[in-house]
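Support request, please re-run this one:
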Amino acid sequence: MFRVASTADLTALRDLERTANLAGLGHVFPPERYPFPDDAVLARWALVLDEPGVDVLVLDGEQGLTAYAAYDDTTLRHLAVHPDHWGSGIATAAITACLDVMEARGGTEASLWCLEENLRARRLYEHLGWRATTDRDEAPWPPHPVEMRYARSLGGR
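Re-run finished. Output below.
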């Protein structure tokens, strides 16, 4: 199902992120005011793929990537599913795959950061047992909305 991403997937990772963000976060990043930062996101994906200890899983589809999940030993860093597949269980499967590896590596807790205004993602995380913490930070992309941290135990899922 999922496979490990390579540098050959750079453009597809960026393109899926753009598609998912435009569909799900247009209210936070109105594209007419904040065009998607194609070059910066592509550069960030190159760094993520090259970073030791970070794994990126992807799911191929007929039109390109259907989903991706990037994680390290303690953090779910990036997650996206193509909007045509929202509600299909792919995000849950991707999260579960990441958490299984984190736990197998000896982790006891995982965390992730999510935009406060990304209500769809927040509902999913909370449904899967993640709990909101009091940690907040400013997102790096204009208009710099608030991000919040979620955490969850890895034992006994």
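The mean pLDDT is 96. Residues 10-24 form the longest helix (15 residues).
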